[in-house]
């Protein structure tokens, strides 16, 4: 009964292992070979369990038939496993060769013949409560038997467990030796080791069955260690090095073995009290364990802070460091912080940032931790391919293993080689590449792992912030050293204006004005073309002043365009922007403004108010100005903004006008302390409605300047849309 239960447990284990493996298929882009192989082994275990159950409680003939099926499946699985190690890892787009398929099915048919058709092959198979019963006839008779004393099962086991797998091990070893990728070579070696592991397990089961014949009913367990190694080899993402093994052993010893040993020693020390006074023993032992647990907790935190003992689960610590950068610090201090962060958690030996050098498709270094100055010629199709795959984070090992990038592999590997790196991150604004951040080889000689990829993707927006900062701030030739803020202000405003998609539709006349109060600020207005008939506009302000606010504003503007390349849902866009502000910009950042979408095909304006101070609309039909803000919340305060914002819409007719502005226009005061207010805005709007949109925006600002009679204290941004109608 116990052996029946063990086979059923092995069946459940392999089913679970198959599901776990299947979850990784989409990420690795490998074929489902390992999933199918694991399910095949689960069928072998189930068949073995059925055989045992029938031999205990069923008719003998049915038990024999079930046993023969189990042995045939056992042999066929061994062939499938041997062929798997030669093809590993196979892309999901690549089919096995016809020759290999022919060879596999030929061996399957041979197994069927040896088990079912060969005379005297399997004569009895089953078990009772005392022993395992197994009889197989001899291959030869008469005098030949004395020379060749082999049964049919001896032939099956030696052929399918040893001979055939040994042949494929040699083929797989040659393939592994000729593999360029170090990680792939190691994965193939681990997979190959699965075959000798099956040999050892089979030998152990046969040896143990001489002392207890019932153990032979577990012959299907021959392949259990093998499938575990196959799974481990498939999922392995780091190289085995002496240092990594030492660090792993030290972590286990300090974090687990040490407290366990202390707990054991405490028990031994209190053993006498245990025999004499059990209540006192329980009080002392629980107190001692609590003290050990307390110190273990702080010891674990200490381990996380030490480079040598820290494990690979560094996501939360990496997030703290990458989001704690103070962009008001000196540039050298910021770049040292960035480099230290990548070095500490990813073990990168260097970082290099390359940006557009002003020539066609050229990249040059704007920052390098090594002090290198590298210039590269870019093949745009390489970045286009990677961005189309939604794969801005690229590792050398991934390039070497993934057949879907074979057409760009040469250039991408050349980029890594010239920058002496093993990974690069494409920092893109929509389809435009802003910069490329190259990460040097790991100091411990290992490779960038799947966990590294997961972390870099998770905090891509934070890395984008870093890359944009280094690109623009560290370039001293561009911004100067004496008047950096003024130069940066000009650069930011120019960047905004150059990247704006001006509406080129005869139905609308659009004008805007943006005036920072102190040369630099966090306000912006942007128009983004979706197609000839649909445009998105954003107007608003990020909190803060000076260079930090300007950097955040430019980054937010860029990330909005990136999000638009990923989603077509207007409300979801705003939700993603809210998440970005909350999680990726400096703590305490928030945005107040308006998101709008104009659809010229339906003459409709869709808008979401995100804390905008005012959104005015003039309707020609009623010759009146009204506010159409609708419900809205400032972005950056709450985690889930979706339930708190609504998409509103208004129908546009010929002669209608829209005016959006920031609070600098509404809340500015005169020398006497009077607020300019919405009434003055509405009056000015009506008075100048006959002018083009650009003029209306300018006249609104001129009116404010005249009213204030002093230097403005706040930034002012105005957007005017005149709907001309027509076709």
Description:
- With 727 residues, the chain is an alpha+beta fold.
- It is 54% helix and 16% strand.
- The strands form four sheets. The protein has a six-stranded antiparallel beta sheet, with helices on both faces. A five-stranded antiparallel beta sheet has the order 9-18-17-14-15.
- A hairpin with a 4-residue loop joins strand 12 and strand 13.
- Helix 6 runs antiparallel to helix 7.
- It starts with a helix and ends with a strand.
- About 2% of the residues have low confidence.
Question: What are the key terms here?
Answer:
727 residues, alpha+beta, 5-stranded antiparallel β-sheet, 18 strands, 54% helix, 16% strand
Count of distinct strands: 18
Assembly type of the chains comes to single chain
Strand content: 15-25%
**What overall form do the CA principal axes indicate?**
elongated
The percentage helix is: 40-55%
Q: Unreliable stretches, pLDDT < 50, 5 or more residues?
A: 476-489
Give the strand line-up of the largest sheet.
5-4-3-8-7-6
* Structure annotation, total helices: 25
Short description:
The protein is of the alpha+beta class.
Write the layout of secondary structure elements.
Elements: H1 2-28, H2 33-57, H3 60-87, H4 98-117, E1 124-127, E2 132-135, H5 143-147, H6 152-177, H7 182-209, H8 224-235, H9 242-269, H10 271-276, H11 278-305, H12 315-323, H13 331-345, E3 351-356, E4 362-368, E5 375-377, H14 380-388, E6 393-395, H15 396-401, H16 409-418, E7 421-429, E8 432-440, H17 450-458, H18 460-473, H19 476-479, H20 484-498, E9 508-515, E10 523-531, E11 534-542, H21 546-564, H22 570-584, E12 591-599, E13 604-610, E14 614-619, E15 624-627, E16 648-651, E17 657-661, H23 663-667, H24 677-687, H25 693-708, E18 716-723
Antiparallel strand pairs: 1-2, 3-4, 3-8, 4-5, 6-7, 7-8, 9-18, 10-11, 11-12, 12-13, 13-16, 14-15, 14-17, 17-18
Helix pairs in contact: 1-2, 1-8, 2-3, 2-8, 3-4, 3-6, 6-7, 7-8, 9-11, 12-13, 18-21, 20-21, 21-22
